[in-house]
Amino acid sequence: MQAVEWRAPHELVVVQRPEPEAADGQLVVEVANCGICGSDLHSYNKGFAAVPGQVLGHEFCGVVLQAPGVEGVAVGDRVTVRPLTPCGHCDRCLAGDVHLCESSVADNIGYGSPGAFAERVLVPRATLGETVFVLPEAVDDRAGALIEPLAVSLRAVRIADAQADDVVLVLGGGMIGLGVVRFLKLRGAGTIVLSDPSPLRRERALALGADVVIDPLVQDTTQEMRALTGPGGMGLGARVDVVIDCAGVAAAFKDALKCVRHGGTVVLTAMYGQRIELVPDRIVEKELSVRGSFAYKDEFPLVIAALANGSVQAEPFISHHFPLDQTPEAFLAQLDRESSLKVLVG
Known about the structure:
Blueprint: E1 2-8, E2 11-16, E3 27-35, H1 38-46, E4 59-66, E5 78-81, H2 91-94, E6 120-123, E7 132-134, H3 141-144, H4 147-160, E8 167-171, H5 175-186, E9 191-195, H6 199-208, E10 212-214, H7 221-229, E11 240-245, H8 250-259, E12 260-268, H9 281-286, E13 289-292, H10 300-309, E14 318-322, H11 327-335, E15 342-345
Parallel strand pairs: 8-9, 8-11, 9-10, 11-12, 12-13, 14-15
Antiparallel strand pairs: 1-2, 3-4, 3-6, 3-15, 4-5, 5-7
Helix pairs in contact: 4-5, 4-10, 5-6
């Protein structure tokens, strides 16, 4: 079968690999679409969690070709897959926090296990409702490939728990940030502001429910938020109730600590991939709640339901669609922030 291997930073190669074969409790899925994630870009650029020969790709959906011993899943079912595979035995898994599994990530699809930038992919541990979700007819293949990143967005919004009169600042308008905007709107957040330098992403944020957008390259985010909310304590910063950082850059984190009000909440859902300067005094002085939001816990069914009922639609998030043999070109498109949102391969 055709697949795409990571060989070195900025080097993806289309190759022929052996067909996967499912053992008992596993699936083989014919990939319909696979999205390029920010973590895939970290791998592409710097080798994050990748070794030469690794097949990347974990945001995908497709049709089941083999399903020996997998209860509730049949050949021909259209499915999406939770690529993070919990062990089921560590303390966190036993507590129900399967997204915080403490064990090895060897079976995580697109990392230890071969990913979905391929014609077919093996699901190493397949359990209906845990790692595998059957798609309703109302959720097409393009939408199916967005369920994983939208679950990341929804997890961050649920952790933030913004209230109806809250001002929420979203930093970064990539796929996760735009998903955050949409779910904030659906959950009734008061005022939603998105900061991103891309005109395309700012325009799309407004379409998805943002009330205000900011270009941090030409506007001072803190000053703009002060004009909107009034100054914070001692005339410094602003009075933002919740900041959700989906950007993963030092300047955005600095803005988050400046803009959030005393007693406010900062949710970090971006992967920074590097060390950044931190002055923790501001966290102490403002008595902030700083929360990490990692991946997803039980959000997959909620996202599928939102896509099925039309409250979330796939097309506003998608900018490009490439065939598998043009995956290297697809990665270059995804790296272009001025013209890309979510880039799909398949």
